[in-house]
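question for whoever is on the cluster today: can someone run the full assembly for these? two chains, 226 residues total. i dont have access anymore since they changed the login thing
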Amino acid sequence: GAGVSQSPRYKVAKRGQDVALRCDPISGHVSLFWYQQALGQGPEFLTYFQNEAQLDKSGLPSDRFFAERPEGSVSTLKIQRTQQEDSAVYLCASSRTGENYGYTFGSGTRLTVV
Amino acid sequence: RKEVEQDPGPFNVPEGATVAFNCTYSNSASQSFFWYRQDCRKEPKLLMSVYSSGNEDGRFTAQLNRASQYISLLIRDSKLSDSATYLCVVTAERGGADGLTFGKGTHLIIQP
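^ ran it for u. tokens below:
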């Protein structure tokens, strides 16, 4: 596609529910990042994929967070047993080569846990 | 201490004025520096890269001071459309790639 596509655009989850957020990067982009942006804050790094390999997951806040990119294209961020502090915008960014100036961000998924 | 620190503002500035804001970063190993712009409820978008020699893009000027570890952004002849949050960004190694580390953002409001 022309840009990075994320779905759903908005998600409301009850506390304790599991959610799955999808990122469809630009075709051919090797690098894929997930970020979490809380209200009034800058985006915080969660995890990085190069093709299907998850090379850095140091930003995932707990073991309730899991990300995958099995075929090196679409990625899914899963949050189990959601809690109120998980409420944030989840942004996905992709790049052809991992070069920092080439990142394109998706519009994000706004997750609200009630 | 946060890796990238910015004054969150808001900066309320009259249209046509010049406004400048800085940010500081803690990781001396950071290699690349950027300003991103984020409109309300939108994704961040690259505004400009920042070089040690300084760089200018129209009304926008960015500067980097590696010795003092700070980055600045100057906006001249500000327009209403400049109202946004400006994110200071440095790179940090993430799994072999250049991951972006964001500041909290500086909120700019241009008033008519």
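summary bc i know u wont read the tokens: The two ends of chain B are 37 Å apart (CA to CA). The longest strand of chain B covers residues 84-94.
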